[in-house]
Amino acid sequence: MTQSTRYTIGQSLFGVLSSVATANSAAAVFNPPLPLARQQSSRTLFLLDRGDRLIDQANQRQKRRCRVVLGALVSAAEAHAEVDALHFAARTAIQALRSNQITDGRCLLHETEVEPELRDGGANGALLLSAYEIDYEQVYPAVS
């Protein structure tokens, strides 16, 4: 079964996030339920899939834009410096990705504004968020 480009993008980003989490003794979670609950680890990096939309279409080729939110959560008193360092490490790793590392070179990653309803994620502890939009191309097989 062939996976979508959106799925490939999500897996690539989460792979990078998981590596950063491991290097920083943190947990990595893909699409945690909202409101955010404390995970098994007191330090958590997470990636939320926030949707996908069609931008343009020509035959079987679609230009699409998906949105993800990167989050760092540290469940400790006075954890602002710790969550900042964890979030900065994850942002640095994601922004260092080149499009050919995410898909086959046909995508563009750019940072955007975090949705207001996510800013107060209901988490206990310190929370930092970044949102990204990824423009990509999805090609569908021709239907005979």
- Using the alpha-carbon principal axes, give the shape: elongated
**Number of structurally distinct domains:** 1
CATH fold node name: STM4215-like
Q: Helix/strand/pairing class, anyone?
A: alpha+beta
At the first level of CATH, what is the class?
Alpha Beta
Instruction: Give, in spatial order, the strands making up the sheet with the most strands.
Output: 1-2-3-5-4
Overall pLDDT level:
85
Structural description of this entry:
The chain is an alpha+beta fold and about 140 residues long. The protein has a single domain (about 5-140), classed as STM4215-like, CATH 3.30.2000.10. The chain has 4 helices and 5 strands; from the N terminus they run H-E-E-E-H-H-E-H-E. It has a 5-stranded mixed β-sheet with strand order 1-2-3-5-4. Helix 1 crosses helix 2. It is elongated, with a radius of gyration of 16 Å.
In short:
The protein has 144 residues and is α+β, with helices and mostly antiparallel strands.
Question: Which descriptors apply to this entry?
Answer:
single chain; 144 residues; alpha+beta; STM4215-like; 5-stranded mixed β-sheet; 4 helices; 31% helix
